[in-house]
Design a protein that fits this description.
By secondary structure, the chain is an all-alpha fold. The chain has seven helices and no strands.
Length: about 190
């Protein structure tokens, strides 16, 4: 059983060029994305405490994302990159969330599938970063992140399948893949994960 769909189109060469030309800014944004990913996993636990089947995976994902936050922070500290004074909104995630259904169950499904899409895109982009880096330590770090994000992309679809039919999950996921590409195509290219 396939637990996620591939992204519709790969990220552009312009995106990876922007990242490589301002890697310090990319690291600051990456740090913030890991914090938000941890918070998102834990917010599912807080909002849906009755969904006992997925709580262990959500907690594990939240901890893993927080560990990634710590690893990026240590990397930044080693490179003398300061923490940003404020963490801005992610226009990519904000645009995805705006397209969510409003009913409790429909929104629950949408938020799980958005998490899957975001993690899958993150995996694709971390692989591009790993491939573009020359520093062996950084290359290894981003390869590890790439495999971790790909796993998370699968986990959120698996969670959805606990509560919704395969047809419903995959039809809606296919719709989200189209929406994600449309949103990504409309965003300004910057040295950021999204």
């Amino acid at each position: 059983m396939k637990l996620n769909l591939d992204i519709k189109a790969p990220s552009s060469q312009e995106w990876i060029n922007a990242v490589m030309s301002d890697f310090d800014s990319f690291l600051q944004d990456h740090l913030d994305c890991e914090r938000k990913a941890s918070s998102m996993a834990m917010s599912f636990v807080a909002k849906y405490p009755d969904r006992k089947e997925i709580i262990p995976d959500l907690i594990e994902t939240g901890i893993e994302e927080l560990e990634h936050f710590q690893q990026v922070y240590l990397l930044m500290e080693k490179r003398g990159i300061p923490l940003p004074h404020s963490m801005g909104e992610d226009p990519y995630v904000k645009a995805l969330i705006k397209k969510c259904h409003s009913g409790r169950e429909e929104r629950f499904l949408d938020r799980l599938l958005i998490a899957s899409i975001v993690e899958t895109r993150g995996a694709e982009r971390f692989k591009m970063v790993a491939d573009a880096l020359e520093d062996p330590e950084l290359k290894k770090f981003y390869k590890m992140l790439w495999t971790s994000e790909a796993k998370h992309g699968h986990i959120f679809v698996k969670m959805a399948l606990n509560y919704f039919s395969k047809d419903q999950v995959y039809q809606r996921l296919e719709w989200w893949v189209d929406q994600e590409q449309e949103i990504l195509d409309g965003l300004e290219i910057r040295a950021a994960l999204h």
